[in-house]
Amino acid sequence: IICEDKCILLCMQEFRVIFRCCVLIVFASVYLCYTQARLAYVTAEAELKVPYADELPSREAQLTALKTTEEFDVLVVGGGATGAGCALDAVTRNLKTALVERSDFSSGTSSRSTKLIHGGVRYLQKAIMQLDYEQYMMVKEALHERANLLEIAPHLSAPLPIMLPVYKWWQLPYYWAGIKMYDLVAGIQCLKSSYVLSKTKALELFPMLKRDKLVGAIVYYDGQHNDARMNLAIALTAARHGAAIANYTEVVHLLKTKDPQTGKEKVCGAHCKDVITGEEFDVKAKCVINATGPFTDSLRKMDNQETSNICQPSAGVHIVIPGYYSPDNMGLLDPATSDGRVIFFLPWEKMTIAGTTDTPTNVTAHPIPGEDDINFILREVRNYLSPDIEVRRGDVLAAWSGIRPLVTDPNSKDTQSICRNHIVSISDSGLVTIAGGKWTTYRSMAEETLDAAIKAHGLSAEPCKTVGLMLEGAKGWTPTLYIRLVQDYGLENEVAQHLASTYGGKAYDVAKMAEVTGQRWPIVGKRLVSEFPYIESEVLYAIKEYACTAIDVLARRTRLGFLNVQAADEALPRIVQIMGKELDWSQERKTAELEAAKKFLYHEMGYRSRSEQLTRTSEINLDYQEVVRYKKRFHKFDKESKGFITTVDVQRVLDSINVHIDENALHEILNEVDLNKNGQIEIDEFLQLMSAVKKGQVSDSRLAILMKTAEETLDKRGPVTVDRSGGGV
After folding, report:
1. DSSP code of 333?
2. DSSP 3-state assignment of 62?
3. Omega before residue 356 within 30° of 0, cis
4. Which of the chain's termini has less CB crowding within 10 Å, N or C?
């Protein structure tokens, strides 16, 4: 293959891949000529009876059902995507169903994904390269489930174009063949056909791209969703169909009874504990399903201490940076990072997500994003973006780590090459375990699990009905729903769009709960923080959705904690105030909620990593002229040459230029930079701040911007002349 003045020899392995793909494309093209569908379509099942169509039962009512029901057919342990999917599958088969989750729904891996609904381009590549039929079928199944998920929750999901930039001519046919195969495997459920872009067009659509040596790009389509809200929608749909579900309900140990025929012990339920009240009770069930994700082996060892581990956990870190790093509706795929991983760079909730890593880890309920992983992602992002764009460490607004429950040989060390497939196993005592898999395939995994459980336990059940079954909020949603919200309730346009895309048809219920602002516009809908469209009535509605803590609201009912940890920290006191009033919390409980949420943001959402960019030991990396300039700026506030400034000094300067800031807000601004927490900013602390800003470790420092703006305003004014003052004496 000749590329301008350079001859590039493709390795035989890559040539074989292209040849195989081209042959398949030729044979499949005849079929595609007759397919008109460009958007996925899934035939919905007949509508089922919904016992709680009008209003969800309260958490207290759900706990009562768990305690008083003589025996359930199925008890699902785990409230992630797979567990909620199993509960929905079971209850819609007319099985008496219960679900318990020791934390909140989607509190683990299911809320910490890349937010993609995808078949897995790289798995298809492996399937072709290795002629692996199992991986091919996994991709095919995932693409079917992708179509179903986009259909049953249109308010929470949508197709997303993803660009694969190409920097070598020979890679164009290679990647084009692979992506076309991806379209072909999807068949009539292909979202939109992939296409090739010239260099000029690629830069027009993604102007942030590095243009040097760029030869073109390929764009393909996958799905994107709000993962925690999707998980919650599955759980709430199960509850509406009659499942007894309860978060913050921990399994202490499994219940067992002897089989009168065989004399063997059989699992017959679980002894549970309400984490909020401490009350313990038994939940009896004919069948117990273990859907605990990374904690799969913990529950299996409750059943049998001698059982060997089947899960090898892997940590995946993601970061969130400002939305200006990516176009509003175009993602980016880096197919081969410096260490062989894949990095996605995606617009989400008007921000940009970048990730992920893939590192062996220990199982923990509170994974923490590491600084090394954050910097690795930033380095890879820099490799693909224009050198004109400075990718700063200080632009990381949030970061999180999710633990993937990979199914593998426990002796394996290389988790990156492990296939994300799943297994369903049944122990000698009848415990059904579903482990591994992907977010996208939660529904088919649940179907397979229930099929196995029904067969093993002799349950009387109907066929699976979850294909095409609309999830919570899907009914009544239309793309123009937000307009009705603006017109009928007087909500801001941005807020109305957010409510429609978060709650779907239930957005009206949230809007009805919104308080009047007292302003001309918007009429209703007080924001929790000014730069995000989350409003106070969402906190009240979150309680109806089984939110029990401030973390539930920050991280999973709204996504503020995942989008901007500082904004989440600012919204936290008001969230606690609203929840405290509604749930009649004591002052002690409110204080505990504040502390727990701050700890969550600090450790699990990357606030610690962000705040540690400016420490007491930070080096001052400024040249002489910069030091002089910043000292001059500092002394405009430190008129008495004390060597430090306080809120009083800052307020005095602001008053002189007619700028007014709330005293509490001013304390917060200074506290961000006050490293030794003595209530004042020393000259060294200020120089450390400016050095960190220069190196990109800190961005959007409110104090730095405030002082710069004040200095510029004062310099423009200049000294007041004698003539202008009226002559003087």
Report:
1. E
2. helix
3. yes
4. C
Q: Which CATH class is domain 480-612?
A: mainly alpha
**Token pair for residue 698?**
């800190």
CB 118 within 8 A of CB 109: no
- Do the beta carbons of residue 633 and residue 715 sit within 8 Å? no
Q: Cα separation of 669 and 601, whole Å?
A: 18
Angle at 201 between CA 198 and CA 205, to 5 degrees: 135
What 3-state class would DSSP assign to 106?
Answer: coil
Q: How many helices (H) and strands (E) does the chain have?
A: 25, 22
For 570, the token pair is 């600012």
Report the candidate in 413, 419, 408 with the shortest Cα–Cα distance to residue 123: 419
pLDDT in tens, 443-481: 999 999 999 999 999 999 999 999 999 999 999 999 999
Q: Is the pTM of this model over 0.70?
A: yes
Q: Give exposure, 20-30, as e/b (b: 16+ Cβ within 10 Å).
A: ebeebbeebee
In tens, the pLDDT along 94-103 reads 999 999 999 9
**Fold classified for 59-112+229-309+413-457:** FAD/NAD(P)-binding domain (3.50.50)
Give the CATH fold of the 122-224+314-404 domain.
Answer: D-Amino Acid Oxidase; Chain A, domain 2 (3.30.9)
Q: Which residue has the tokens 């991280």?
A: 555
Fold entry, domain 615-716: Recoverin; domain 1 (1.10.238)
Strand locations in 275-417, DSSP E?
A: 280-290, 311-322, 331-334, 343-348, 351-355, 359-360, 398-407
DSSP 506-530: GHHHHHHTPPB-SSSS-SB--BSST
Beta strand pairing status for 72-77 and 280-290? parallel
